[in-house]
Amino acid sequence: MVGWLPMFRTTSPEAGVTRFRKTFAATAAVLAVVGAMVISLTLYQVQKDHGQTLHVIGDSDVADRVDVEVVVIQIDAAVQELTVQLVPSPRGALADEFGRFRSDATIYTSGMKPEPIRIKAGDLISAAEVRIAMGGGGMITDYPFDKYRAHIDVAADAGDHAVPVTIGLFSLDAFFKITPQVDDEQHGDGIGTTVTVARSTASLTFALFVIVLMLGLALAAATAAFYVLAGRRGLIWPANTLMAAVLFAMIPLRNAVPGAPPIGSIIDFGSFFIAETVVALSLICTVLVGYRHEVVKEREDA
């Protein structure tokens, strides 16, 4: 009779707690990954929306005016230059039936070489490339927190008199974001705006990630060195190899940040120099002290 009795498996409370902990840890890991993806995609959307924003400066309600599309195609922080393309378009009575200037027009800009853009009546309108100086006290060594200011001023003449101007500002440089001070008031015969230039959200995020990563690698190397030295373990070649690999891997890691900041930037004094020093000292101390322990062990064994 005993042989056919069913066998019941009992579960201990400890096993139930362990299963709950594993389930909770797995759920928390999945939620953490999903949350990180949501935050990352949100940052991407913010940068995308900011980059695709058309900033209009001037009074667009004026019927007879000249719209000047100013497209930022490149921002060079090293030489502090802003390269833009200007495309003027006549509106209202200033345009003919084909959308071209009805009379001869001249566009004046605040470029580094302020040569006016002259357009004959009825001619096709082509883009003109203009370089504009940046300032505002910003320096590239402040990377990734460097900021600059540029003044963009545009005026236009059609025929023999000045005409109202409206600026449409747009940026194609993905490494920077621009924030103009929009002013709807005409200044004299033209319109102007002061543009603040800063690193884009993606560039700033990646630079901060590299800074934290380099400090984390330095902490890992220091932890490995403490483990070897505190335990008097001698020469532990895997630990030495790890520290040597980290030491030389941080150089291309630092150079991978967008914008190619020069040596001596904030990213160097705030992270790279510190991390390289910690890893180098950890490696040197581990090898020298470990060698001394190995010599002592050999003498004791002899």
From TrEMBL:
Residues that span the membrane, as ranges: 24-44, 206-229, 235-257, 269-291
InterPro entries given in the database record: DUF4436
Keyword Transmembrane tagged: yes
Alphabetized UniProt keyword annotations: Membrane, Transmembrane, Transmembrane helix
Pfam name, any one: DUF4436
Record's protein name: DUF4436 domain-containing protein
